[in-house]
Every structure is written in structure tokens, then in C-alpha cells.
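Design a sequence for this backbone.
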């Protein structure tokens, strides 16, 4: 069993830089868990603490029932794959793959080379076993590095952005390959990436980090459909979720949001929102696939100017700006930290449309389009705390605290 438990794990560098704070998470035996977050959010630090390459300031890491805080890396039964493959240039592929086993075990030579052969077969690199690394392409080197990890038959695989040096096509291919491999071997894996798409496509579950703190953990679908806060909402999904600023008005005639966009909201939902937040102004989050663009106004539509329409093949992406919209950044007033990637498109919003459904002459013209919103899929965020306060059926997908409490019993 190689379940991994993080119990209140904190890492402070040099007595001042808090890289990871009170991190709690349980990774199931055989699970593929991805740590994702912007640069500096603490992903590599967490991975390095699991590997034993970084001391844990406080808290505990438990691998397969053993607290590993004080175990040296070689006694942790893990294998790590990095982005710079760190292959020995003077050794052939076969020797590179056998190196770790030769050093860490006293297995007979034949057994080691048999394992190397099997791993090479799995990675499709048998014909490269007698080559030196300099003769290999980036993709082949990555396969050798992964094969070298497989040979060790570890309890846990740790991947630190292993695909970021590869070109886009190869990266996609290797994603599938690593996933297949992990399922075949059923080895617990922690995979670190800053690329949310990679996280979404590969993982059983995703843990999203920001500023050293766990924001949410859940399956790709959960974190996409039920983001617990504005950070997760905007970090997960491409293009990212649109954010509008509107005020909640509750009158005798019903409740509605008025502001950047005007939308009706059920009494029930308005009550949930006011129970959870004392604010009056909110961030309304709506994904590009939940906006409908019309050429004619309807009773409930909101006008917008089209900037550009980008053909993507199966659909088009329409970039628009609302008239007189509030600046989302000012409303957040610095209390919700949203990643850099996210801020850059704060004024411009996006909607998916059917190809050619909006004539191209709407681009950068005075002719407005008219938008309606699928409010069932609209999220409401408190602008001060960033919390998602409007979920009709809030579901806590972070089961880590509970499980850890259980494990303690
Ligand atoms: P990520 O992998 O998400 O990019 P890191 O774990 O590398 O994030 O870094 C988290 C924080 O810790 C950052 O603020 C980074 O500057 C800091 N940090 C990382 N390594 C060290 C180190 N060896 N000494 C001091 N600070 C560090």
C-alpha cells in the first residue's frame, strides 16, 4: 500500500519564505494526483519534501504507513522524473536505466538487465538501448528517463514538469503514454505542472495551489464545474471563466443582479448568497460556453461590442467588451489574488459561438451583439474572500481533512 498523507505540512525557507502552509491531503494507493498552480505556488517544494530532497519545517508526510520526515531519499521507495532528464552522457541508455538499481540494490546483474529490457519495451525504446543520450531526440530522452524510473519498481512516482521541454505535439502524445503507463503499473503518482490543461487531461484528481495554500482538490470535472473560489474558477479552464461585477438587488418583485450584466436570480439562490456573504456587489463567473450571442436584442439580453471572432474549427471564439463595465480588479480591491495569466484578459470577455453564426462585419464595428447567460451555470463569488457563495448545491470536494482525521483514529 502506498497511500500518501500530508498532515499539516508547512515549509518555510530561511526562516522567512513560507513556500507551503498547512497542507493537508490524502492520495490514494494507485492514484494519479496532479499538483497545479502558478509559478511560485509551492508545487516543487511539496514534491521535493515527498522525495526527501527538502526538509519539512512542520507537519508530517506519511508514505504507505510510514512517516518519512526523517528518512533519507534512498529509503523512501520513490522514483522521480524531472524535466531535465539528467541522463549520464557517457553511459549508454541501458546503463543509464540500470544505474539506480545497481547502486541501491544488490540484485543480480541478469535480473537488473531483464527489468531494464521490460521497462524499455514498455516505453518503446528497446532499439535505443545501446545508444548514448546525445544521439536521442527530446522525446526519446524523456522515455529513457521515465523507463529508468519504472525499472526501480517504486512505491511512488514523482513527476516534476517532465514534459515541459517537449514540443506541443509530443507533449500531448507523452501525456497519454504516461497516463497509460501509470494505469498499467498502478503505482501512486504525484505529477507537478503549471499547465492546467495537462492537469485536466491526465489526472484522477487535481490539487490546485496558490501562494503555498491548497485552494481545492477534486476530479477534473469537480474543479471545473464546482470551483470553490474565484482563483480556481479562473485558473482552471481555457479560455478562463468570464468575471462580471453586479450588485444583488432584492425587492418585493424578486431578486436580480444589476451591473455589468443584469440577470434574474431565484429567491432561493439570493437567500443562499446573502446567508454566505455580507457583500452587496459580487463577481459573477460565467464560462464562455454558457453565453449565447444573438444579433437581435431579446427581453433579457445585454448589449456588447465584438472585438474579434476567432475561428477554432468546431466552434468560434468571440471576444467582446461590455459597455461601461466595472473594472473587476478594482472591485476585488487586491483581496483576492488572481494569477497573472488571469488578469491580462480582465476587460475582454469571451463566448463560444457556432461557426459563422455571427457575421464577420460585427468585428470592431458599432453594431452591437446581444448576450444572454445560462444562469444555472453562473457562479457567484464574494469579491473580498473570493469564496463561491452562490452554488446551489455546494459540495465539499476536499475530503482530505476528514480522511486524515479518520487515519488518526
Ligand atoms: P513552484 O514549484 O510552484 O513554482 P516552488 O515550490 O518552487 O514553487 O516555490 C515556492 C516558494 O518558495 C517561492 O516563493 C520560491 O521563491 C520559494 N523557494 C523555493 N525554493 C527555495 C529555496 N531553495 N530557498 C528559498 N526560497 C525558495
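Sequence:
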Amino acid at each position: 500500500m502506498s497511500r500518501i498523507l500530508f498532515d499539516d505540512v508547512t515549509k518555510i525557507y530561511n526562516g522567512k519564505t513560507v513556500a507551503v502552509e498547512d497542507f493537508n491531503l490524502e492520495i490514494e494507493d494507485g492514484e494519479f494526483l496532479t499538483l497545479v498552480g502558478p509559478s511560485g505556488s509551492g508545487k516543487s517544494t511539496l514534491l521535493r519534501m515527498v522525495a526527501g530532497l527538502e526538509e519539512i519545517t512542520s507537519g508530517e508526510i506519511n508514505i504507505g504507513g510510514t512517516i518519512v520526515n526523517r528518512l533519507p531519499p534512498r529509503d523512501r521507495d520513490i522514483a522521480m522524473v524531472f524535466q531535465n532528464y539528467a541522463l549520464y552522457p557517457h553511459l549508454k541508455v541501458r546503463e543509464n536505466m540500470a544505474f539506480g538499481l545497481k547502486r541501491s540494490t544488490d540484485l543480480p546483474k541478469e535480473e537488473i538487465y531483464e527489468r531494464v529490457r521490460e521497462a524499455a519495451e514498455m516505453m518503446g525504446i528497446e532499439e535505443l538501448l545501446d545508444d548514448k543520450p546525445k544521439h536521442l531526440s527530446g522525446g526519446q530522452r524523456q522515455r529513457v528517463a521515465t523507463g529508468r524510473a519504472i525499472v526501480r519498481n517504486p512505491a511512488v512516482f514523482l513527476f516534476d514538469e517532465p514534459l515541459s521541454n517537449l514540443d506541443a505535439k509530443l507533449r500531448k502524445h507523452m501525456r497519454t503514454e504516461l497516463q497509460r503507463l501509470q494505469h498499467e503499473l498502478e503505482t501512486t503518482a504525484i505529477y507537478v505542472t503549471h499547465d492546467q490543461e495537462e492537469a485536466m487531461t491526465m489526472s484522477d484528481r487535481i490539487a490546485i495551489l496558490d501562494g503555498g495554500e491548497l485552494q481545492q482538490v477534486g476530479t477534473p470535472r469537480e474543479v471545473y464545474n464546482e470551483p470553490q473560489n474565484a482563483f480556481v474558477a479562473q485558473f482552471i479552464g481555457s479560455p478562463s471563466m468570464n468575471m462580471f461585477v453586479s450588485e444583488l438587488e432584492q425587492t418585493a418583485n424578486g431578486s436580480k443582479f444589476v451591473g455589468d450584466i443584469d440577470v434574474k436570480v431565484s429567491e432561493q439562490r439570493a437567500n443562499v448568497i446573502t446567508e454566505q456573504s455580507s457583500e452587496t456587489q459580487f463577481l459573477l463567473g460565467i464560462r464562455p460556453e454558457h453565453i449565447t450571442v444573438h444579433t437581435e436584442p431579446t427581453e433579457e439580453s445585454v448589449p456588447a461590442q465584438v472585438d474579434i471572432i476567432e475561428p477554432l474549427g468546431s466552434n468560434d471564439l468571440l471576444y467582446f467588451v461590455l459597455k461601461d463595465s466595472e473594472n473587476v480588479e478594482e472591485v476585488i480591491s487586491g483581496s483576492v489574488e488572481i494569477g497573472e495569466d488571469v488578469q491580462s484578459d480582465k476587460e475582454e470577455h469571451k463566448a463560444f459561438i457556432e461557426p459563422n453564426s455571427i457575421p464577420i462585419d460585427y468585428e470592431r464595428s458599432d453594431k452591437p451583439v446581444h448576450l444572454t447567460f445560462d444562469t444555472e451555470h453562473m457562479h457567484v463569488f464574494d469579491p473580498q474572500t473570493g469564496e463561491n457563495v452562490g452554488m446551489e448545491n455546494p459540495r465539499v470536494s476536499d475530503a482530505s481533512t476528514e480522511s486524515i482525521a479518520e487515519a488518526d483514529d
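The longest strand covers residues 17-27.
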